Amino acid sequence: MISTGDLKKGVTIEFEGQMCSVLDWQHVKMGRGGAIVRMKLRNLRTGSTFDRTCDAGEKFKRVYLDRSTVTYQYQDDDQYHFMDTSTYDDVVLTAQQLGDAKNFLIDNLELDLITYEEEPISVEPPEKVVMQVTYTEPGFKGDTATGGTKPATTETGFVFSPLF
Q1: Residue 23 has pLDDT above 70, yes or no
Q2: Domain 2-62: CATH architecture, name and number where available
Q3: Which of 5, 24, 54, 90 is the most buried (most CB within 10 A)?
Q4: pTM of the predicted model, to two decimals?
Q5: Which residues contact 115 (CB under 8 A, 6 or more apart)?
Q6: Does this chain's domain 2-62 share its CATH topology with 66-124?
Q7: 3-state DSSP call for residue 116?
Q8: What is the Cα–Cα distance from 42 to 51, expressed in whole angstroms?
């Protein structure tokens, strides 16, 4: 069990029967009455985020997640296949489980697989991924009054606006 005083970012708890990761928390002392704790949580199964308020000193069940290294292999429709580098087992995750990480998957990329009781939850990509830009609009001379950003398409099809 973990109390609200021991909460910090990144801790995984069981909240209202769901496995949640603490994104942010704030201890608030009220003028009258006891203190409260405001938490921003992410449901690890659905990926949704929500805010909750609870009394200071309330206790939650702490959830311990396992991490292992996997290598991205290929995509088959809505399923993404990874290979566990220690056991060589095939691990399959859906696009919903991957979230935004699916935009940065390139062949043979090593990622951290997060599991709970042998069930894969999600993957955590490395902080930096080297990708190739496959298309971008041509720049025009004198077109930098508002900054040097323009949309770029990467080899995975992800479109974003980096600073060129």
Answers
A1: yes
A2: Roll (2.30)
A3: 54
A4: 0.72
A5: 65, 66, 67, 68, 121
A6: no
A7: strand
A8: 9
